[in-house]
Amino acid sequence: MKNTNKRVEEILSKMSLKDKIGQLNQDIIKVSELDKAKKAIKEKRVGSLILSSSAFAGNEFQEGAKADLINEVQKYAMDELGIPILFGRDVIHGHKTVYPIPLAMAASFNSDLIKKSYEEIALEASNEGVNWTFTPMLDVSRDPRWGRIIESPGEDPYVGAKMAEAVVKGLQGDDLTKQEKIVACAKHFIGYGQSEGGRDYHRTEISDYTLRNYYLKAFKAASEAGVKTVMSSFNEISGQPVSSSKYLMQDVLKDEIGFDGFIVSDWGAIVQLINQGVAEDEKEAAYLSINAGLDMDMVDYCYGYLEELIEEGKVDIETINESVRRILTVKVEAGLFDNPYITPVKIDYEKHAETSCKLASESMVLLKNEGILPLSKDSKIALIGPMTTEKRALLGSWTLDFDLEKTVTIFDGIKNIAPNATIETRSNYDEMGAAIRKSDVVILALGESDQVTGEARSLASIEISDMQKDIIKRAKLYGKKVIGVMCFGRCVALESVEPYFDAILYAWHLGSQTGNAAAKIIFGDEVPSGKTAVTFPRVTGQIPLYYNVSSSGRNVNGYYGIENLSNYEDVKGSPMYPFGYGLSYTTYNYSNLKVDNTKINLCDIEKGKCVKVSVDVKNTGNYDAKEIVQCYVMM
Ligand code: BGC
Predict the structure, then answer these.
(1) CB atoms within 10 A of CB 570
(2) Is 369 helix (H, G, I), strand (E, B) or coil?
(3) CA 210/CA 196 separation, integer angstroms
């Protein structure tokens, strides 16, 4: 650290004001338009480039990276500036190999496997020249209408903190100078998941109590895991936009939590301060953000005004030095001064597919099973529904570099895992009866498109579509057992269709290996172990519905009501499936529960004193399986 500081101070001492301000800006780079990027470097306008074609990277086609072209631009930067560029890209839940959406990963409760997945993701992305990614997304999310819930670890701060640690350690490793490691970015700081009504980009109302008990924890964990960058969010909290809040960025994140990397704005979050009504123009927006501790401007083009603001005495040169220092420190720590270029290596994509498949099967949640699953491998199956041969949706939103060819559909997965099964399928739903009559069991492959999830893709209703409800009801008419394989990005409201199913396997958008992973569970090669990391409401109107809410004085337990003690006249109080819910093929016996200390003072907890809880868990069923043991604390 001492050496890094010394090195950074030496570099800083040789930089002109223009050099310094350049480091505080990120612009776009498209590999088809390298000259634009080189021009920005020559004019000392950038310290980072984002490999992106538009502001909606999760929803639209984005040109990819190429190691040789990135090397060419990096060489240009080293020659012109003597300072390497950070090449950023949204590598959210996979690069070429796509892993489950983060909301699904969280259901695996398997930090080691998540970490391993992000090691592989970092290897694939770094091999093409990406050295910085905008992951992990740590927004506590309680509203499945919000399209971005798919990127989040769900509603629980503890699960969020565990995800933060696993993802940061997977991406950055213990030695960030290694080529296969990339700089992580914890986002969106902070409270963006609370967007009112699940409408994207909306305002939030968060008290300090809620901020500290629910929203900050995952960011604190990311900081403790050594995350090098944090992204400021678009939203305002109680009238104060985060991207101009000194309290949140400087006082809480940097000074109180001790985050020592740099903060980058979300795309356009600085210029949006004008729309949010706190800045009159771009210059004032820059003035507010830099003085609030926001170090790098992501494609806002506002920090170009910093020179004028310094001349006018509105920004202190020490403020600029501090931000540049933080950015240079990350570049030194990432080894970019010593080894700015990429030497592509051969990647074992088969191995990555195996990890993705394992994580996908651990992320799936068995919601219902009336003794029908697992199926025998020589079953006669009618496989019906829009997700039967669908590929793109299974990859989910926020995947930019996928290989569609290598994506395994539900149909292919069943063929791969149970080659002796007979599959009857119909793409024309009017003919589904014919397929069902010939079969012993019906599998309905249902779901939603990736295009109704992700950024700026919220839904007012989380009911499944009328067309799919119709398929479910018709499938039930033939007297055969009906299994639902549900491929959605969010939790959906299942109350109206649940009685029609004999089994429900919630398969989310699980990435490249969705089909194989689902088939392994359907035929019992893997035993389901996933538990929901988000509450499933019965109907849309129950939102917000999350488990960790303080108890109400009237014994209806706040939002998470008891079955017959509802806050509503027209729906039960309980959720359809609570947080932490998930069935197995086996059974477990819990015994010998022990708590070593039943009374503990708050001040002792603050000093690090712990309560140890232990329990014996015995598998009493017929399958080898794993169980996620859950322990809840109540105040
Ligand atoms: C999103 C971020 C993303 C950034 C860069 C923004 O619109 O909110 O999550 O990292 O774009 O693509």
Answers:
(1) 7
(2) strand
(3) 15
Q: Do 327 and 408 reside in the same domain of the chain?
A: no
Q: Residue 236 carries which DSSP code?
A: E
Q: Does residue 256 sit in the same domain as residue 199? A: yes
pLDDT above 70: residue 68: yes
Reported confidence tier of residue 553, pLDDT bands at 50, 70, 90: confident
> Could you tell me if the CB of 195 is within 6 A of ligand 1?
no
For ligand 1, the distance from its centroid to the CA atom of residue 432, given in whole angstroms, is 42
Please determine, for residue 558, whether its predicted confidence score (pLDDT) is greater than 60: no
Inside any domain, residue 101: no
Q: Is the CB of 266 under 6 A from ligand 1?
A: yes
Q: Assess whether the C-beta atom of 267 lies below 6 angstroms from ligand 1.
A: yes
CATH number of the domain within which 477 lies: 3.40.50.1700
Same domain, 312 and 416: no
Q: Is residue 561 very low, low, confident or very high in pLDDT (cuts 50, 70, 90)?
A: low
Task: Compute the distance from residue 191 Cα to the ligand 1 centre, in Å.
Answer: 15
The set of residues, in sequence order, having a beta carbon less than 8 Å from that of 330 and lying 6+ positions away, is 86, 183, 228, 229, 261, 262
Q: Are 440 and 321 contained in the same domain?
A: no
Domain that holds residue 441: 352-522
Tell whether the model's pLDDT for residue 560 goes beyond 80: no
Task: Write down the pLDDT at residue 9.
Answer: 98
Q: Exposure pattern of 504-532 as b/e (b: 16+ CB <10 Å)?
A: bbbbbbbbbbbbbbbbbbbbbebbbbbbb
Domain co-membership, 162 together with 291 = yes
- Domain end, chosen from 522, 545, 570, is at 522
The answer as to whether 186 is a domain residue is yes
348 assigned to active site: no
Nearest-CA residue for ligand 1 atom 11 is 267
Residue 139 above 80 pLDDT?
yes
How many angstroms does the Cα of residue 22 sit away from the middle of ligand 1? 21
Which residue of 182, 233, 266 sits with most ligand 1 atoms within 8 Å of its CB, as the best mutation to test the pocket? 266
Total structural domains within the chain: 2
In a domain, 403, yes or no: yes
Residue range 528-552, pLDDT digits in tens: 999 999 999 999 999 999 999 877 7
Question: Choosing from 143, 156, 266, 502, which is the catalytic residue?
Answer: 266
Q: In the structure encoding, which two tokens stand for residue 135, read together?
A: 């992951």
